[in-house]
Each structure stands twice: as structure tokens, then as C-alpha cells.
Design goal:
Elements (H helix, E strand, L loop, with lengths): L1 H21 L3 H21 L3 H32 L1
């Protein structure tokens, strides 16, 4: 059961990682990047690395996408002013 779960999580991580690369819309890229962080968090928990999983949850799923969204919103505001 464990090997099947790990294989499924690895395949899901590869699929979501490919989705990050193939997404063209910046907003969609940010949300797929957050999903990638969530999948990696699940993978790290399955690999019994809870400290790494919690770090990935905080940084890869929450902080980095939030910073990208704020930056994207700032760029759009500056474009509308010009």
C-alpha cells in the first residue's frame, strides 16, 4: 500500500510540476505553483519528513504564491495608471 501511495504521489508531483511549466497565464501559474507546493507537502509527509513538509506548506504553498500575487497585483495597478 505504501509503495502504491508513493508512486501515486510522485506521479502527481510530476504532473503538477509539468502544469506549472505549461501554464501561460501568470495568475494561473501562481495557483498551480501553490498546488505544486501542496502536493510536495503530501509527498514529504508520506516520506516521513514532517519538518520538511511543514516548511514546504508554509513557504511553497502559502508565502511564495502570496508574494507573487501581491507583485502581480502591483504590476497591474501600475499598468492601469499609465
Amino acid at each position: 500500500m505504501s509503495a502504491i501511495l508513493l508512486a501515486l504521489l510522485f506521479a502527481l508531483a510530476a504532473a503538477v510540476g509539468t502544469g506549472v511549466v505549461l501554464a501561460r497565464n501568470p495568475r494561473r501559474q501562481i495557483f498551480v505553483l501553490a498546488a505544486n507546493g501542496l502536493v510536495l507537502t503530501l509527498l514529504f509527509f508520506a516520506l516521513q519528513a514532517p519538518d520538511v513538509a511543514l516548511s514546504e506548506l508554509a513557504v511553497g504553498t502559502a508565502a511564495t504564491p502570496l508574494l507573487f500575487l501581491v507583485t502581480l497585483a502591483g504590476v497591474r495597478i501600475n499598468r492601469s495608471r499609465k
